[in-house]
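Could someone model S-adenosylmethionine with this protein?
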Amino acid sequence: MTDAPLLTPRQIAIVRQVFGTDIRLDGDNVFIAGRRCPIRDGVIVLDGTVAEVDAEKAEVIRSFGEEWGSFPAMAPEHQREFDGYFDLVDVAGLEGKTVADLGCGMGRWSRILLERTTPRFLVCADLSDAIFVARRNLAEHPNVLFIKADLETLRFDGFRFDFAFSLGVLHHIPGGIAVALAQIASYAESFLGYLYYALDNRGTVFAVLFRAADLLRRALARIRTEPVRRAVSWLIALVLYKPFVLAADIAGALGVDKDRMPLNAYCGNSLRRIQQDAYDRFFTTVEYRYTRSDITAHCTRHWHEVTFSDRQPYWHFLCRGPRR
Ligand SMILES: C[S@@+](CC[C@H](N)C(=O)[O-])C[C@H]1O[C@@H](n2cnc3c(N)ncnc32)[C@H](O)[C@@H]1O
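Reply:
Sure, complex below.
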């Protein structure tokens, strides 16, 4: 059973702001512009299931729902990772602004954002059951609205967020980023994205390792049993990731530039944290990779300015100045 089945008055006020005034509450449902959306466990369900025709997307979403159900907890490393993702953003400056976390997963970045600043409100959206994990992880924050929705169709009909972010999401959409990005551009004044890079700033060693890892991913993603996935991801973390992390640590100690070492970003991370990323990396059936120029071409259709961070994770970038 649920512990917070309906919306709070504050959340209803947020719904009215983002979806317009044509809102009606009726029992466990909210009607948005005449469309009935169930409220489940404090989450507005705009998109309950993925259409059967979209089997690829359905599998991605099923898999992420399970992943975040298995890894729902915050980790100490997340604070440092947040700094990495948000290095282009004036986080304190988001005070009083409207913010959206698109493809929020279990809500880790929103949680840290809310520790560091006080937006006017925050909307978290995800198509998988991870949105229910996010709702639990952010339960003490009254200013957050949770929506189960597909980023390829989600729209806000006139409302524009001051800032939206989508970290590690759009590269998992079958068919690519174009449709979701156009939707996001219709309601985000500025946008922080993170998309898997196509190793365009790396050499042959990374390319070879990537080929091998990708073959392994294609084979392992066929495993559907959750406990087996958890066990395999732990094994990968221990046997594949840890030796590289150790090598990067040693290289760092010897004064070599760590950034040139594969998997150096995991230095200092717990095995559990690496396991979660290994799960994410090896059990997701759809992943695209983008060069810096691919991303620039996509984003400059919608925003005037795209700024890339030169720091890991690659590529994360900030889009500003929407084209209208
Ligand atoms: C790798 S996880 C990242 C989650 C979160 N941004 C983070 O970094 O912790 C990708 C998330 O995107 C969500 N997602 C994938 N495709 C989506 C879509 N079409 N619409 C909404 N969410 C989607 C998944 O359910 C999953 O929670």
